[in-house]
Amino acid sequence: MMQKTRTPSLQIGPEVLRSAVSILDQEGPDGFTVRAIAKRADVAPMAIYNHFGGVNGVIDHLWTHGFRMLGEAVNRHSGDVEVDFMSAGLAYRRFALENRGLYTIMFLHRFRNFEPSPASAQIAAQTYHALVTMVERCQAAGILTHSRASDAAQVIWSSCHGYVSLEIHGVNFAQNPDDTYVMLLETLRRGLR
Question: How many helices and strands, by DSSP H and E, does the chain display?
Answer without folding.
Answer: 9, 0
